[in-house]
Every structure is written in C-alpha cells, then in structure tokens.
Write a structure and sequence with these properties.
This protein is α+β, with helices and mostly antiparallel strands. It is about 40% helix and about 30% strand. It contains two helices and four strands; from the N terminus they run E-H-E-E-E-H.
C-alpha cells in the first residue's frame, strides 16, 4: 500500500506522520486489497475547541472510500477516521464474491 501524508497550511510533524503510518499499516494488514491511502491534516478555527481535521481517502477495487473527522487533537481525529474507514471496509468486504 502506498501512503501519502500532506499537511495543509500547517507545519509538518514527524511524530504525527509516524502515528498515522502505524495505524494505516495495521489497517493494510487486515485488508490486503487496499491499494493507496491519501492523508490530509488541516487546522480550522473552531469556537467549540475542535478544529484539528484528519481526512483519509483509500483507493481500492471499486469506488474509493473517504472518511474525515474534526477533533480537539490530531490523535483523536486519526483514531475516529480510521474507525470509520474500518466500518466502510467491512461493508465492502461483505459484498465481495468468493470464487
């Protein structure tokens, strides 16, 4: 699986990159048919204390899968986004026809 991580209008973070890579490699071990992952980190002004956005788009056979979450820190945003992706991947896996 190919992974690209982009930081939109914010400084890059090696620890955040390592964190998201670790989570995505675990995901790739569960679902071998995932081809590519595009990760975008964004910061947005929010009055509720949130504003740290993580967006992940997965390329796989069939339509792409996308998930995003807006949390108070990036670690929580990554965890919620990955859990949303896992739900979508399980649904997709259930539709596969076994030969």
């Amino acid at each position: 699986m190919t992974i690209t991580v982009q930081y939109v209008k914010m400084p890059t973070s090696e620890t955040m990159t390592e964190f998201v890579l670790d989570k995505l490699y675990d995901l790739a071990n569960k679902f071998e048919w995932v081809i590519k992952a595009d990760v975008h980190f964004k910061t947005e002004k929010d009055t509720k204390g949130k504003g740290n956005i993580c967006e992940i788009e997965l390329s796989l056979p069939g339509p792409r899968i996308f998930a995003s979450s807006n949390e108070k820190n990036y670690e929580l945003a990554v965890k919620h986004t990955i859990s949303d992706l896992i739900k979508q991947l399980k649904k997709r896996k259930a539709t596969f026809i076994k030969h």
